[in-house]
């Protein structure tokens, strides 16, 4: 007979296993489909675990030949990285100010920033389009970069101010002031190095938000040269009368790969950074 | 080393509910080399005062001088001070050696060897030589406290500031560090301002104690002065543990010039001297320290009152008796032989030379016992 703790542990792992299966099955299906021919992908006779010889790189080769994915990915990386850098550049001092300084309108500004995170962006597409049109930024990568930076900014500020408020004791900065730093020096030399995990986590989320952004790229661009991979996928999905599931899934795999790599690189920081928030 | 002078220093915080006066017109002169302890309940303004001196808090009104030089507008780094925080505030990403040497590197042009020599010297003084290459995260609270103190010592500043540095340590370590900080002060002779809410810490370490309440200076004096001659009921209550017993009494003068203090279950005959000093009949608050009360059935009736024993706490060296007198708690520190049963009625007495009388309205001290009351009690105005 198994004792109480072992039995409850068994139940725990069974539940965790079921949940993992539920969560991971779609990903498996995406990867499986991307390595099959389109016919095999929709053939009910294909096993859940397809035979090794039925796997093929055909879908990936077709993507390479039929679509301009190098441009799409280059655009995606360019706009995501730029949006991440720009938003961090502004949100680090901004978040620090929200966390530490008392200035008139601090609360109003902060809640405005937080509100924009929750605001349904689709509502403001037309005015935003108008503004970018007036600024001559429609159908340009610069326009997309600016738009993504702006929309990523509040979320980055929100994440970072929480860390500055709770993760960095004020006394440490005060000790730095007494040790001989100016306020800026204390921030740059003491606070910022200590905030590396949080900045890493915020950068990851900024990158993911920018990478996954569909709406603004879709609204602000129409030319293929300035299209990002996320939007390109939508065009692939909508282009063929006969759905080519394998190609679609291969594109999805490619689309998901960079964020996964980026997460892998910054994973060490993310837990630590979020821990302080 | 430096002399520190506060001139009518006031600090007002602006809050949404209106201005909050944290420190009100504080004037204080601290001579070079003195160890001064600021003590008071939380929110009394002691830390704010220290932070104004450090430059971490702006000064609303008044002036702080360091060696006769006004420092109101000076940034913290130009003030030549070192501070130890309650949370220690060590840089977690730097080793102990880097933590201790950082201030010297930033604020002086000493060579790296010289900085290191001074760091090692300070580390030896604090007994942390073998921790120099560790990060603060791997140290115990006591060790971190030593590092924080070492970091201040290395600077050889004009003034040391301590903001409740021992509050996060356990009782035993706290006592040990108390002695150690006193030793360091006598070795270095640097002006030291130490903030604490613990009156025992203040009594044991200070050359002079500054007692604050509600942002106002209550009394400045040596530990003995504030203990034997508290300026008012607040100081009397705050200094000493267990704290002083207070009874609201009326003084009735007899025809021979002597008098009787009566009220709240107490009736106690006092001599002509006491009557003269308080200036006749009136309403007063009688204060008497637990260590001055005695359980004694042989004392004269006129100087005795009855009390019921509520709780007896045996602490080894003494017994703490909690009595009930006229519906109020009365604390007595008795020798170990005196251990009455709970519920028993005992006779309590004290010497006239140990009593304190306060004005019931202003709470100012009027009389401090017979023998020690030969002069007017010092008042806040005189001290300031």
UniProtKB/TrEMBL annotation, chain A:
What does the entry give for GO biological process? transmembrane transport
Please tell me whether the keyword Membrane is annotated for this protein.
yes
**Which superkingdom heads the taxonomic lineage of this protein's source?**
Archaea
Span of domain ABC transmembrane type-1? 73-266
- Topology relative to the membrane, per the entry? Multi-pass membrane protein
Q: Which family does it belong to?
A: Belongs to the binding-protein-dependent transport system permease family.
What is the protein name given in its UniProt record? ABC transporter integral membrane protein
Q: Which organism is it from?
A: Halogeometricum pallidum JCM 14848
């Amino acid at each position: 007979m198994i004792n109480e703790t072992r039995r409850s542990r068994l139940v725990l792992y069974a539940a965790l296993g079921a949940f993992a299966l539920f969560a991971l099955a779609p990903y498996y299906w995406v990867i499986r489909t991307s390595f099959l021919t389109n016919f095999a992908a929709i053939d009910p006779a294909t096993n859940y675990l397809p035979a090794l010889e039925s796997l093929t790189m055909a879908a990936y080769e077709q993507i390479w030949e039929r679509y301009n994915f190098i441009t799409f990915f280059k655009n995606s990386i360019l706009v995501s990285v730029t949006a991440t850098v720009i938003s961090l550049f502004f949100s680090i001092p901004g978040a620090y100010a929200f966390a530490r300084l008392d200035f008139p309108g601090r609360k109003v500004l902060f809640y405005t920033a937080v509100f924009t995170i929750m605001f349904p962006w689709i509502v403001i597409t037309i005015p935003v389009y108008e503004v970018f049109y007036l600024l001559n930024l429609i159908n340009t990568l610069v326009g997309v970069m600016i738009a993504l930076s702006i929309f990523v900014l509040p979320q980055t500020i929100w994440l970072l101010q929480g860390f500055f408020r709770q993760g960095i004791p004020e006394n440490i900065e005060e000790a730095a002031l007494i040790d001989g730093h100016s306020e800026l020096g204390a921030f740059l030399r003491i606070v910022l190095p200590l905030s590396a995990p949080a900045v890493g986590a915020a950068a990851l989320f900024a990158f993911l938000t920018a990478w996954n952004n569909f709406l603004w790229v879709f609204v602000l661009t129409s030319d293929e040269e300035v299209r990002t991979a996320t939007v390109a996928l939508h065009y692939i999905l909508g282009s063929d009368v006969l759905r080519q599931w394998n190609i679609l899934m291969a594109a999805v795999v490619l689309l998901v790969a960079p964020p996964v790599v980026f997460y892998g690189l910054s994973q060490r920081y993310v837990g630590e950074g979020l821990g302080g928030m | 080393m430096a002399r520190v002078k506060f001139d009518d220093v006031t600090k007002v915080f602006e809050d949404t509910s209106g201005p909050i006066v944290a420190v009100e017109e504080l004037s204080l002169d601290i001579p070079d080399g003195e160890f001064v302890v600021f003590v008071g309940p939380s929110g009394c303004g002691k830390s704010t005062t220290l932070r104004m001196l450090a430059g971490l808090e702006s000064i609303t009104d008044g002036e702080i001088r360091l060696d006769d030089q006004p420092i109101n507008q000076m940034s913290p780094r130009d003030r030549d001070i070192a501070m130890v925080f309650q949370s220690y505030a060590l840089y977690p990403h730097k080793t102990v050696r880097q933590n201790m040497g950082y201030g010297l590197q930033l604020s002086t042009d000493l060579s790296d060897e010289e900085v290191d020599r001074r760091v090692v010297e300070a580390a030896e003084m604090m007994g942390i030589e073998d921790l120099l290459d560790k990060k603060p995260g791997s140290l115990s609270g006591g060790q971190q406290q030593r590092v924080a103190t070492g970091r201040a010592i290395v600077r050889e500043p004009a003034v040391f500031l301590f903001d409740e540095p021992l509050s996060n340590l356990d009782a035993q370590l706290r006592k040990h560090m108390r002695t150690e900080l006193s030793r360091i002060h006598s070795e270095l002779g640097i002006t030291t301002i130490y903030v604490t809410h613990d009156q025992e810490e203040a009594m044991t370490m200070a050359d002079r104690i500054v007692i604050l309440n509600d942002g106002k200076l209550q009394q400045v004096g040596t530990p003995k002065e504030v203990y034997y001659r508290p300026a008012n009921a607040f100081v009397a209550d705050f200094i000493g543990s267990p704290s002083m017993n207070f009874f609201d009494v009326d003084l009735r003068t007899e025809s021979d010039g002597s008098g009787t203090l009566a009220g709240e279950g107490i009736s106690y005959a006092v001599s002509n001297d006491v009557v003269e000093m308080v200036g006749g009949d009136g309403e007063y608050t009688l204060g008497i320290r637990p260590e001055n009360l005695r359980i004694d059935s042989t004392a004269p009736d006129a100087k005795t009152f009855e009390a019921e024993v509520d709780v007896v706490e045996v602490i080894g060296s003494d017994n703490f008796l909690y009595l009930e007198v006229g519906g109020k708690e009365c604390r007595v520190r008795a020798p170990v032989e005196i251990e009455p049963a709970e519920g028993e009625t005992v006779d309590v007495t004290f010497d006239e030379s140990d009593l304190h009388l306060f004005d019931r309205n202003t709470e100012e001290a009027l009389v401090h016992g017979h023998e020690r009351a030969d002069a007017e009690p010092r008042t806040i105005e005189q001290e300031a």
